[in-house]
């Protein structure tokens, strides 16, 4: 395994580079597109909804205004449900990452660094270390930015095949190679003997089903589960191969970048969304996690980009379209389109319909949504968000002196950040970055808990005082 | 048991989960601030002096209790505003969740967080090898910690209900009673490892708080009898 580990960094470097651009770009694309779509869709949906709520068509005018208000109300009202729909996968991902970190020692061993972070942190002086980590973070961020811009450019010039291929390769890498490593390490930890044939069979099955689920069609739960697993794997890779200070710096800078990229008029993500909206397409589905799904059946048949879409049946979260490194490549096409599709489907209610109904629906203008069921409206979250949340919590559990206290504190902080972001999403109704608030809270709580609360709790536990 | 409470009563409704997590967050922030104060005090004092350190710790605990109650109050204010918002949003003019339910959920949130923080490192260490009380400390360390944590979680839940009820009806003596009870329980924990002194009164206080909260929530001896005898 040592050989394999040695090869891993290079491999990962190569693969990650490919994936990075994908993920970043896709995320931005997806996010912006999604959000726009979601927003506009939502408005239309609400209108449609009110129409279908027993009011005749000729009351459309009245209804429209009423709908606007109801729209807001409904949005906020069902916000709680959507928040929970996002809480569960984020929690699951974090739990998987923390459980792995705690039990499998492979991910906390220093086995070298990624090619993106060439400067080591094992230096003599603190100043040197700080400088190295800043340089590392700068390199990583510039790689991410380059990838994002590349993705935007590709998307603008309609090089869909390239993006598509990119996504496929990165998801292939994730599903097969990384999970093979993961499985190997888990077996080593628990001292389970396993022969290569069984392992090959298991990995093959896992990978193929994953590819099908993510990029094509599959049951929603399975898709969601695969996306969670992929995010967890990616987060584990980051935790292992990023040195400490670099990791924290990268987290901080990425949340700033996310904020800038999504909200600034010239930001790449925003441009992606605008382009997608101009073309009335969805963003890459593979990079997004959607909480609802129904459209799968529909999409594949009607949409020429159905393949891409089906790939990224992710959770749609309006707010952040974080980059899911691996998912990006694949999700780019699928993610957005899927999201959009989903939203469309959500709006028109759970349609297990036949191709005819789909064709009919597609032929209709977006406003003529019929039985819109607000409950079905899903919310989408970029896979990159999952990854970075899990990286934060995983790093907290791996390297904190406060151990479980710190992990728990970061977990609660991230969930609260997610709540707040969704609240803002409901208020502003446009694509929002999901990273900044949660990561800021998480970082603040991590450092505060580790340095301040831990000694306090230690002393309390020692004397068995209770507060 | 607290976790069972969570599963049966809170996990169904997403709004309650959010309130729970937000409650836990508020408790965490109060803990953070109080440990900040304690940390500053410790750094500014002599680390060699045992008695001083212990005194500082006691001061830290009391301060933390006060801060916790302050944050409970802040959380109450936030929830009041939220309820108004929810009422405005809902279709039929009444809120999907009542203030009592919110009080209960907030109490559970506080309790779970405080319990988790008290116990979880202990639990993690308990998995590993070792002997309890090898240096002459009590051998019942784990057991008593577990019981104490449980009583504290329940107490937080009841305090939440009492506190919110007091704030609702402007009965400030109820609020003051909650604060005094909290201080008492923490203070009682100071006489650990003399467990009799801390556990027993805590449980008595918990029973009293439970009965009080139950009565406030509209229960009565009759309800209780009917429930226990499984009448419909």
TrEMBL record, chain A:
The protein's location, in the record's own words, is:
Cell membrane; Cell projection, Axon; Cytoplasmic granule; Endoplasmic reticulum membrane
Q: Does the keyword Endoplasmic reticulum apply?
A: yes
Task: Provide the GO biological process annotations.
Answer: amyloid-beta formation; apoptotic process; calcium ion homeostasis; cell adhesion; intracellular signal transduction; membrane protein ectodomain proteolysis; Notch signaling pathway; protein processing
Q: Which stretches are tagged as biased composition: Basic and acidic residues?
A: 31-47
Q: What is its EC number?
A: 3.4.23.-
Enzyme's top EC category = hydrolase
Asked if the Swiss-Prot or TrEMBL record annotates the protein with the keyword Transmembrane helix, the reply is yes
List keywords of the entry alphabetically.
Answer: Apoptosis, Cell adhesion, Cell membrane, Cell projection, Endoplasmic reticulum, Golgi apparatus, Hydrolase, Membrane, Notch signaling pathway, Phosphoprotein, Protease, Synapse, Transmembrane, Transmembrane helix
Q: Which GO terms describe its molecular function?
A: aspartic endopeptidase activity, intramembrane cleaving
Record-linked Pfam families? Presenilin
**Positions with biased composition (Low complexity):** 53-63
Transmembrane annotation, as ranges: 83-101, 134-155, 162-184, 196-214, 226-242, 248-264, 408-428, 434-453
User: Which stretches are tagged as biased composition: Polar residues?
Assistant: 12-30, 312-324
What's the protein's topology in the membrane?
Multi-pass membrane protein
Matching entries from InterPro entries are given as: Pept_A22A_PS1 (IPR002031), Peptidase_A22A (IPR001108), Preselin/SPP (IPR006639), Presenilin_C (IPR042524)
Please give the GO cellular component terms listed in this UniProt entry: axon; endoplasmic reticulum membrane; gamma-secretase complex; Golgi membrane; synapse
Region (Disordered) residue ranges read 1-68, 306-377
* Subunit: Homodimer.
Identify the PANTHER family for this entry: PRESENILIN, PRESENILIN-1
Question: What family does the entry list?
Answer: Belongs to the peptidase A22A family.
What does UniProt say about this protein's domains?
The PAL motif is required for normal active site conformation.
Instruction: Briefly state the protein's biological role.
Output: Probable subunit of the gamma-secretase complex, an endoprotease complex that catalyzes the intramembrane cleavage of integral membrane proteins such as Notch receptors.
Q: What is this protein called?
A: Presenilin
Organism per entry: Erythrocercus mccallii
UniProtKB/TrEMBL annotation, chain B:
Write the record's keywords in alphabetical order, separated by commas. Membrane, Notch signaling pathway, Transmembrane, Transmembrane helix
Q: Name one GO cellular component term.
A: gamma-secretase complex
Whether Transmembrane helix counts among this entry's keywords is yes
Q: Which InterPro entries match?
A: Aph-1
- Annotated signal peptide: none
Compartmental location: Membrane
BP-aspect Gene Ontology terms: Notch signaling pathway; protein processing
What is the membrane topology noted in the UniProt record heading this document?
Multi-pass membrane protein
Q: Which residues cross the membrane?
A: 17-41, 56-75, 102-120, 140-163, 175-196, 202-221
Note one Pfam family from the annotation.
Aph-1
| Subunit structure, as described in the record | Component of the gamma-secretase complex.
Cross-referenced PANTHER family? GAMMA-SECRETASE SUBUNIT APH-1 (PTHR12889)
What family does the database annotate?
Answer: Belongs to the APH-1 family.
Protein task: Potential subunit of the gamma-secretase complex, an endoprotease complex that catalyzes the intramembrane cleavage of integral proteins such as Notch receptors.
Give the protein name, as stated in the record: Gamma-secretase subunit APH-1
Which lineage do the record's taxonomy fields give for this organism?
Eukaryota, Metazoa, Chordata, Craniata, Vertebrata
């Amino acid at each position: 395994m040592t050989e394999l580990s040695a090869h891993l960094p290079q491999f990962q470097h190569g693969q990650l580079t490919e994936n990075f651009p994908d993920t970043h770009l896709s995320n931005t694309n997806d996010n912006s597109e999604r959000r726009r779509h979601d927003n506009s869709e939502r408005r239309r949906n609400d209108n449609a909804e009110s129409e279908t709520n027993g009011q005749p068509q000729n009351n459309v005018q009245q209804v429209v205004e009423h709908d606007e208000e109801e729209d807001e109300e409904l949005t906020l009202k069902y916000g709680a449900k959507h928040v929970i729909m996002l809480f569960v996968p984020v929690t699951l991902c974090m739990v998987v990452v923390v459980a792995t970190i705690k039990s499998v020692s492979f991910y906390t061993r220093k086995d070298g660094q990624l090619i993106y972070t060439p400067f080591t942190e094992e230096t003599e002086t603190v100043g040197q270390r700080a400088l190295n980590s800043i340089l590392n973070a700068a390199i990583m961020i510039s790689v991410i930015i380059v990838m994002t811009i590349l993705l935007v450019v590709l998307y603008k010039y309609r090089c869909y095949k390239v993006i598509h291929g990119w996504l496929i390769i990165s998801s292939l890498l994730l599903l097969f190679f990384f999970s093979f490593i993961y499985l190997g390490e888990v077996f080593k930890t628990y001292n389970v003997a396993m022969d290569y044939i069984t392992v090959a069979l298991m990995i093959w099955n896992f990978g193929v089903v994953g590819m099908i689920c993510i990029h094509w069609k599959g049951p929603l739960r399975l898709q969601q589960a695969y996306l969670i697993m992929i995010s967890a794997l990616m987060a584990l890779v980051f935790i292992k191969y990023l040195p400490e200070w670099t990791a924290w710096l990268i987290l901080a800078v990425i949340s700033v970048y996310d904020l800038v990229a999504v909200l600034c008029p010239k930001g790449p993500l925003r441009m992606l969304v605008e382009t997608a909206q101009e073309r009335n397409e969805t963003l890459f589905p593979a990079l997004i996690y959607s909480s609802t799904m129904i459209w799968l059946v529909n999409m594949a048949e009607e949409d020429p980009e159905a393949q891409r879409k089906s790939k990224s049946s992710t959770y749609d979260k309006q707010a952040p379209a974080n980059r899911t490194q691996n998912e990006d490549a694949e999700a780019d096409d699928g993610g957005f389109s899927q999201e959009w599709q989903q939203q469309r489907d959500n709006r028109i209610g759970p349609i297990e319909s036949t191709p005819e109904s789909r064709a009919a629906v597609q032929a209709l203008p977006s406003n003529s949504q019929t039985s819109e069921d607000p409950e079905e409206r899903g919310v989408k979250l970029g896979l990159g968000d999952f990854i970075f949340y899990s990286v934060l919590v995983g790093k907290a559990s791996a390297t904190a002196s406060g151990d479980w206290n710190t992990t728990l504190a970061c977990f609660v902080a991230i969930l609260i950040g997610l709540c707040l972001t969704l609240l803002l999403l409901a208020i502003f109704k446009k694509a929002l970055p999901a990273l900044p608030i949660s990561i800021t809270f998480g970082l603040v709580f991590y450092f505060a808990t580790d340095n301040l609360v831990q000694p306090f709790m230690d002393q309390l536990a020692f004397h068995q005082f209770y507060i | 048991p607290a976790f069972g409470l969570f599963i049966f009563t809170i996990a169904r409704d997403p709004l309650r989960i959010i309130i729970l997590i937000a409650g836990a967050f508020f408790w965490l922030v109060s803990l953070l601030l109080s440990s900040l104060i304690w940390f500053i005090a410790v750094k500014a004092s002599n680390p060699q002096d045992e008695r001083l350190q212990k005194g500082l710790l006691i001061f830290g605990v009391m301060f933390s209790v006060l801060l916790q109650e302050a944050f409970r109050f802040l959380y109450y204010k936030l929830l009041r505003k939220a309820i108004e918002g929810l009422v405005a949003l809902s279709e039929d003019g009444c809120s999907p969740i009542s203030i009592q339910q919110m009080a209960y959920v907030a109490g559970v949130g506080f309790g779970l967080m405080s319990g988790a923080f008290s116990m979880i490192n202990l639990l993690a260490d308990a998995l590993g090898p070792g002997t309890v009380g090898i240096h002459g400390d009590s051998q019942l360390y784990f057991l008593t910690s577990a019981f104490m944590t449980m009583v504290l979680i329940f107490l937080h839940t009841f305090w939440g209900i009492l506190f919110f009820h007091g704030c609702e009806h402007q009965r400030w003596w109820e609020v003051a009673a909650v604060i005094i009870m909290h201080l008492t329980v923490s203070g009682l924990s100071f006489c650990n490892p003399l467990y009799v002194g801390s556990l027993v009164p805590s449980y008595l206080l918990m029973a009293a708080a439970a009965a009080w909260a139950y009565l406030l929530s509209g229960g009565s001896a009759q309800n209780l009898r009917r429930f226990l005898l499984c009448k419909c």
